[in-house]
Design goal:
It is built from 8 helices and 4 strands; from the N terminus they run H-H-H-H-H-H-E-H-E-E-E-H. Helices cover 61% and strands 16% of the residues. Helix 1 runs antiparallel to helix 5, helix 2 crosses helix 3 and helix 4 packs antiparallel against helix 5. The protein folds into 2 domains: 98 residues, N-terminal domain of the delta subunit of the F1F0-ATP synthase (Peroxidase, domain 1, Orthogonal Bundle), CATH 1.10.520.20; 72 residues, no CATH class. The protein is an alpha+beta fold. Strands 2-1-3-4 form a 4-stranded mixed sheet.
Length: 178
């Protein structure tokens, strides 16, 4: 869970240090690459979570996998290792990117559609998000064919479901209640 209190504390500390050194964007890029690497490699995730694997072995693996990250990111990983909190690495990275987006006044709008968004629709979504929240946003498109058509828009805590599957489900509930 990216909202764990310890992960948020570590992320805030890393962000504060990165701000002092004017390196918050570089660290944000590192954190995104960490999240992507952990998401794509179940072996890496299992190794990070495993209490059997020694910290020195974990550090060696992370040093080779993330050899091109900034010194702030390396220091954050070393701190997690020394505090025996390396299992939180993914959560810390997720929390950092969320805090960084809040700091910049931007957010991620997740749009789930049955087919890929066109550039024109992406622009309309961005305009609507700006109108609703007053903040800039990046659009992340998730393709889920099970929604049949329409879209599901999620920005922060707000979710708007205009999918065909949702409308069919509402109709089904309406008919079963009568």
């Amino acid at each position: 869970m990216s909202g764990s209190r310890a992960a948020i504390r570590y992320a805030k500390a890393v962000l504060s240090l990165a701000q002092d050194q004017k390196a918050e964007e570089a660290v944000n890029n590192d954190m995104k690459s960490i999240v992507n690497a952990i998401a794509q490699s179940s072996e890496l995730n299992q190794m990070l979570q495993s209490p059997v694997v020694r910290s020195s072995e974990k550090k060696a693996v992370l040093s080779s996998v993330f050899s091109n990250v900034s010194t702030n990111t390396t220091n954050a990983i070393d701190t997690l290792i020394s505090n025996k909190r390396l299992a939180l690495l993914n959560d810390v990275a997720l929390s950092y990117t969320q805090l960084y987006d809040q700091l910049r006044g931007s957010q991620v709008a997740t749009v789930t559609t049955a087919v890929a968004l066109t550039d024109e629709l992406k622009a309309k979504v961005l305009a609507k998000v700006k109108e609703l929240t007053g903040k800039e946003a990046e659009v992340e498109n998730i393709i889920d064919e099970s929604i049949l058509g329409g879209f599901i828009l999620r920005v922060g805590d707000i979710q708007y479901n205009a999918s065909i599957a949702n409308k069919l489900d509402k109709l089904k509930r309406e008919f079963t209640l009568n």
